[in-house]
């Protein structure tokens, strides 16, 4: 479960709010897609959710742990895939994954099991002992995805996960999201790929200039858009109506 209680963030004094009074809950067993035009505040929201930057005001909870008051406990509940995969690390993929498994205290048996499984699933066995520096963007993205899953987190948070992934890897990530949802976990991800969001998400949240302008199922968004709603109205049409 993820809960944002009236969360706001401003980067510069006197500047505009990057996130403005965000109120949103994502429940276990739910995939929620986070959409919005460039600069809407999606990455800022995700950075606050994962405890990388603090909100100015408001409260954030992850699996009933407060990110403000119990940040370590809250962070342990999260698997996080950032928008820019690691590019400068002079360590191998395997070393990177063991580092994450150590940080999240994954037992040796579990980590070995999951490593074998995920390396095969993401077709990374052949490059896992090479330096991350030499990986393609997609490989860096895949290693970040695997690292985020090793501790089997209750809450999976991904910032633009489809960027750079080949069709096979994108499919595996989407299947992983559905599997986690079906096993009572929480999935929250930002994307500009509206077709993916439309097909995959149980609910969609749309941010514009830091404010949540819509949240709901596709059906609820269609009903709420109030523009002579045709049943087949796509998320792309709704998105453009709501954000232009
Ligand atoms: N470190 C920073 N310092 C100052 N302003 C920032 C910083 N990071 C983001 N901003 C500003 O905050 C606002 C929200 O940016 P953010 O990156 O959260 O948007 P986004 O929705 O993720 O955009 P995109 O879809 O382009 O990735 C923008 O106006 C951006 O310029």
Automatic annotation (TrEMBL):
<dbReference type="Pfam" id="PF00005">
    <property type="entry name" value="ABC_tran"/>
</dbReference>
<dbReference type="InterPro" id="IPR051782">
    <property type="entry name" value="ABC_Transporter_VariousFunc"/>
</dbReference>
<dbReference type="InterPro" id="IPR027417">
    <property type="entry name" value="P-loop_NTPase"/>
</dbReference>
<protein>
    <submittedName>
        <fullName>ABC-2 type transport system ATP-binding protein</fullName>
    </submittedName>
</protein>
<dbReference type="InterPro" id="IPR003439">
    <property type="entry name" value="ABC_transporter-like_ATP-bd"/>
</dbReference>
<dbReference type="GO" id="GO:0016887">
    <property type="term" value="F:ATP hydrolysis activity"/>
</dbReference>
<keyword id="KW-0813">Transport</keyword>
<dbReference type="GO" id="GO:0005524">
    <property type="term" value="F:ATP binding"/>
</dbReference>
<feature type="domain" description="ABC transporter">
    <location>
        <begin position="2"/>
        <end position="234"/>
    </location>
</feature>
<keyword id="KW-0547">Nucleotide-binding</keyword>
<dbReference type="InterPro" id="IPR003593">
    <property type="entry name" value="AAA+_ATPase"/>
</dbReference>
<keyword id="KW-0067">ATP-binding</keyword>
């Amino acid at each position: 479960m993820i809960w944002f209680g009236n969360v706001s963030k401003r980067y510069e004094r006197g500047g505009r709010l990057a996130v403005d009074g965000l109120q949103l809950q994502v429940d276990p067993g739910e995939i929620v897609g986070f959409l919005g035009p460039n600069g809407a505040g999606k990455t800022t929201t995700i950075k606050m959710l994962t405890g990388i930057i603090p909100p100015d005001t408001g409260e954030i909870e992850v699996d009933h742990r407060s990110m403000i008051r119990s940040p370590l406990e809250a962070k342990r509940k999260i698997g996080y895939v950032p928008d820019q995969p690691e590019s400068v690390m002079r360590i191998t993929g395997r070393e990177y994954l063991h580092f994450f498994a150590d940080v999240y205290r994954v037992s040796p048996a579990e980590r070995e099991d999951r490593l074998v499984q995920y390396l095969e699933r993401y077709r990374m066995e052949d490059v896992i002992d090479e330096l991350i520096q030499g990986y393609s963007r997609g490989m860096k993205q895949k290693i970040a995805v695997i690292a985020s899953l090793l501790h089997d987190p209750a809450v999976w948070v991904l910032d633009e996960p489809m960027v750079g992934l080949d069709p096979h890897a994108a499919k595996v990530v989407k299947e992983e999201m559905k599997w986690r949802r079906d096993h009572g976990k929480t999935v929250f991800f930002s994307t500009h790929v509206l077709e993916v969001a439309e097909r995959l998400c149980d609910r969609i949240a749309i941010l514009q200039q830091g404010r949540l302008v819509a949240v709901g199922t596709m059906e609820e968004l269609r009903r709420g858009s109030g523009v002579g709603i045709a049943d087949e109205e796509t998320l792309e049409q709704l998105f453009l109506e709501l954000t232009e």
